[in-house]
């Protein structure tokens, strides 16, 4: 809902539980008024009438109060907008008009020939903000154009939550007290990065998992990005964020050109961290993730089983075993194309390897379909190996600096996707691939960061950082439109490209290359702060986990860990015993029974993974699912009962495992035993409201 007051200079956006308000002063300064619980227009107008802080030398009267601080004038905060025109740096803007269309509020400003529009849209309790720059004057160099600056109310003791990590250790949740100055997170790597999800949360006055005020912001961008959380000298807190880090987001707008930033979404919740996560999840399922109402199938992926050593017959045999287990989607990972027998060759040559698939992918795909499964493949379109036909033909199609070494990671170079010829090549190859065999699913990987992001011959090569991402999005959008039945997964050496931007055009994401079921609990805990189980791919792989740590764990523990997201199996089924295959079949069957609750239900993190008992709970209508894990039991002490959340206290719930009937109030206040013992135990508990 959008309300307008103050003679058309105060705006109030409201969702089911929250409001966001802003207004223009007489001299066209755009001030932030409110972000928090629902208020009325009369409240916003009172806030709009408040005077600015008194003048003091060495202080800005605007810092910490403005909606979108531009560079220049009486400001000392990090500018959200920094442009250079005819050698002059900074912005002096005046308000032109506001428009409302389909619940979207647009505030138009101008500085000479540069039009600057701030966009606002409330979806559920999420405020989506973005900015458009339209140049009609002399060329403008855009040094920085953040999507939004968020202003928090004046409080004491803010705490910052973020998820950080690296390869195989993504999404580690940390909470630290905010202090004066700036805390900057981001990626200078060309992709979202394993190092941080582009999300922060700020809480105050000791928010807990289910209580207290939490503010969150998440950026919808899959390239370089930067989010800065600043506590200003007067203790006010602002969060500004958008594309680019240092000079990796520079753009140049000639007359007649325009640029639209990605969305930076913000959410206020007074339901603690759990309430904030549920609101983020509901928003993504309703507005971001394609076809979120459809449950994702159980997948088998052969990567950990076979790596590059693949053959058609071996894949067929794995498919037969996967189908017998109840798997619904069989995916051939890396190694099916070009001369891809190791990571040294083949990237770029997107036709089936004739030695491995003499008649192409079609026979295998058809056999997989005949087994009752969908068929999927792996690709990494943005990359090329020097040892490939593509690179031999077009060595200038990669990002490089003239006269400098071309840095390789995993023996590969990054294609310059900002080039139209590269875009067309990839479109043709991928379109042919999807047209040439019955392919239902594409795992789209990205296995190295940008290092030598040059574009010889291009007058403004810096634009490559942004245009690569736009070209990636366009290619995905075009493929989705041409092949609407094909689902896509975003992968980047595990979870290196997970953000609201890629999520709007993929069906699920690969959470991490770390498939150790214990490590995964922590990774999933961090991931769930912002993203829902509906997109979180998780595989059951072999024990011992030879990839990372040789940890031995039961099939039960591995399955229950992976059942917290979109279940997949990635072990070497050729080596699984008949007993293991039979047990796995039962777990897959159980997952199919609970998956709509897991993938579409409300998530409650009952206990974080911290060494002992941990558990998550999902609620969808009258169905409740609890997944619980015990890492280690100590001193023979019985394991604490699990106190459930989100139930109706006066209703009764029947446990489908034991047949026992429980009162909602008792389950929430006193809890129920999960029945776990020893080390690495796990359980699935299903309850139904009766
Ligand atoms: C990295 C991915 O995260 C893995 O799952 C696998 O697809 C490999 N790439 C293949 O090269």
Automatic annotation (TrEMBL):
SUPFAM superfamilies attached to this UniProt entry: (Trans)glycosidases
GO process terms (BP): carbohydrate catabolic process
Domain of life of the source: Bacteria
InterPro entries: Aldolase_TIM (IPR013785), Alpga-gal_N_sf (IPR038417), Alpha-glycosidase_related (IPR050985), GH (IPR017853), Glyco_hydro_36 (IPR002252), Glyco_hydro_36_C (IPR031705), Glyco_hydro_36_N (IPR031704), Glyco_hydro_b (IPR013780)
Enzyme active site: 445 (nucleophile), 513 (proton donor)
Catalytic activity of the protein: Hydrolysis of terminal, non-reducing alpha-D-galactose residues in alpha-D-galactosides, including galactose oligosaccharides, galactomannans and galactolipids
Alphabetical list of Gene3D superfamilies matching this protein: Aldolase class I (3.20.20.70), alpha-galactosidase from lactobacil brevis (2.70.98.60), Golgi alpha-mannosidase II (2.60.40.1180)
Domain Glycosyl hydrolase family 36 N-terminal: 30-253
Major enzyme class: hydrolase
PANTHER family named among the record's database cross-references: ALPHA-GALACTOSIDASE C-RELATED (PTHR43053:SF3), GLYCOSIDASE FAMILY 31 (PTHR43053)
Name by which UniProt lists this protein: Alpha-galactosidase
Organism expressing this protein natively: Streptomyces spongiae
Taxonomic path: Bacteria, Bacillati, Actinomycetota, Actinomycetes, Kitasatosporales
